[in-house]
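Hi all, posting the design record for the shared folder.

TITLE: backbone redesign
STEP: 1 of 1
STRUCTURE INPUT:
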């Protein structure tokens, strides 16, 4: 999230209107506020698994700020079809694998266990299927013989901070041509 905010300067076609988090203790909220971005917290825990109720509040929060694009960055929630359909074609997400491989969680451990020679990250449009929307960009890193999931995650995160801002710039300008970094 911070990499995205920091990239939106000068002639960038997008500007951050709000940083929304589902965890009040997340360090990103404080960092966004320090950069002059309005912040909101919509904690999912009080809804006790009622995704529709959570999404109703989240949607109202987003509607107040009227974003043109929603960029997910560590917002680890699975959304209902209703929410996704409402914001369709305006949501992008970053995932720590080279999709379509390793959708879901534990991507780095799974890539290492499978003996992959490379791993990476993918920015994709959010659609009704989990981690399955059109790919807007990918960045690759080698998997080292002595890699741990944590070491691989650290290298992938460096690429996420390069890839996501590059994809956002294009997406905000209406260009959905995939960005490929290595």
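Okay, here is what came back for every position:
SEQUENCE:
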């Amino acid at each position: 999230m911070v990499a995205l905010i920091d990239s939106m300067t000068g002639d960038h076609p997008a500007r951050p209107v709000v940083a929304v988090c589902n965890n009040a203790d997340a360090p990103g909220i404080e960092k966004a506020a320090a950069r002059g971005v309005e912040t909101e917290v919509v904690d999912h825990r009080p809804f006790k698994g009622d995704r529709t109720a959570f999404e109703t509040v989240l949607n109202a929060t987003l509607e107040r700020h009227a974003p043109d694009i929603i960029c997910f960055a560590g917002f680890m929630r699975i959304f209902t079809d209703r929410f996704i359909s409402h914001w369709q074609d305006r949501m992008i997400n970053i995932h720590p694998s080279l999709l379509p491989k390793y959708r879901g969680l534990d991507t780095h451990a799974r890539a290492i266990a499978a003996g992959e020679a490379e791993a990476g990250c993918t920015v994709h449009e959010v659609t009704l299927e989990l981690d399955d929307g059109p790919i807007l960009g990918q960045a690759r890193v080698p998997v080292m013989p002595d890699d741990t999931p944590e070491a691989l995650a650290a290298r992938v995160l460096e690429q996420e901070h390069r890839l996501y801002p590059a994809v956002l710039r294009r997406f905000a300008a209406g260009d959905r041509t995939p960005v490929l970094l290595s």
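COMMENT: Strands lie at 19-21, 39-41, 70-72, 91-95, 118-125, 135-142, 179-181.
Let me know if anyone wants the other runs.
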